[in-house]
Amino acid sequence: MNYADITNLVFNIITTLVSLLYVHFIIFGIVGIFAKKTYPKAKVKHKYGLIIPARNEEKVVGNLIKSIQKSNYPQDKLQIFVIAHNCTDKTAEICRSLGATVYEYNNPNECTMGYAFRYLFDCIKKDWGIKSYDGFFLFNADNIVSSDYFDKMNDAFDACGGKDVITSFRNSKNFGSNVMSGLYGMYFAYGCRYEMLGRTALNCSTRVSGTGYVINSDIVKDGWPYVTLTEDWEFSADQIIQGKKIKFCNDAVFYDEQPTSFKVMWRQRVRWQKGHLLVCKTRLKDLVKHIFAKGSNKVSTYDYTANILPFCLIFLFLWLAQFAMLLFSPLFGIPLGPVMLNLFKSLGWTLLTSYITLALSTILLFILERKRIKNVSFIKKVAIVLLFPIFMGLQFPIDVVALFSRNLTWKTIPHTDTTSVEMLSDNKTETIETKDEM
Prior knowledge:
By secondary structure, the chain is of the alpha/beta class. It has one domain: Spore Coat Polysaccharide Biosynthesis Protein SpsA, Chain A (Alpha-Beta Complex). Helix content is 52%, strand content 11%. The chain has 15 helices and 8 strands. The protein has helices at residues 3-20, 23-34, 61-69, 91-97, 113-127, 149-159, 179-201, 231-241, 262-291, 298-308, 311-326, 336-368, 378-393, 395-404, 421-425, and strands at residues 48-54, 78-85, 101-105, 135-138, 144-145, 165-172, 213-216, 246-256. Strands 3-2-1-4-7-6-8-5 form an 8-stranded mixed β-sheet, with helices on both faces. Strand 1, helix 3 (61-69) and strand 2 form a beta-alpha-beta unit. Helix 2 (23-34) crosses helix 7 (179-201). The longest helix is centred in the C-terminal third of the chain and has 33 residues, at 336-368. The protein is globular, with a radius of gyration of 23 Å.
């Protein structure tokens, strides 16, 4: 074997070993295809506080409140709390007119959703008492819920004795607005079906994604400490470190609005990844320690540890390191051209295989979730299938940008989609494309 062969062998072994860290994702995905996880009917209708942060959301927050009020769950068991933070519109006024309990909070230096949660939970503790509620649902102002949402979530909450965090199926109310919103919708449906369902079916902890989850009131008896760019990842990490589980309720469906422009998509995903990197930095050590702790759920902890690692950056670094090492081939009498040609051929086959696998799994997901994915024309479905692998592949440059971004702050993602839960139930939607606002 010559220098180039040895270099390729070494890096192939390293890359294979790193890839094996994620092989369990395939198992979760396969189980998610076939699993049918349901929960027994609850005997108790628990009382919940519903948490809604809203920043200039006058166009959409009313539809969320109305969908809650039209749900099948006893309304005397649901209290809607809205935190109108840094608002300059009529968000607070609209929410009060619809019967919600509204608090207003203005601090331009504290603009993430986590700060809004923190302030609102402090207000609830002072004015109402945290233990007045069995649990709290966390939403975003652009969400709407299906009519049986709280019944299904209450079944899951009751089944675990209120001990576990329960998250739900994240659907998109503007799935068919354009291809970009469709790609986003597929991204979240992909995570729910191929990741969360499989994990829960195998009795492993999953993670919360954005909003649409319920927590036991004990979790916030001392307040809400998660205020970073991605408070959901931070919260999930701490739940697992504390030995708690996050379960998925596939039968409970809520909807949110997806961006419709590339510019907003890029900005949002860079922010997500920056927050992801911060969580990796602050929680990785504790997660690794917890893997070996006595009595810990080792599979769930290992899974989440692998999940927070920046795998795109790791694989990109390995490939660049291999490329750099092969540049020295001429020093050992090996022509550089054929060596680099083989390297790029190998990369090409890897990319092609990944593309085909993602495209086929997207087709399968359209079939599996055909009753949930509505108002998407055949042409848009074809476009989503062809572009979804590229949408996912953008994670590589996004990770690089996030890694080198400094002083990255939260910026508004404007919500203007006026779809109501009745429109979704009747298979009709009226959507307004999101405009990018900096």
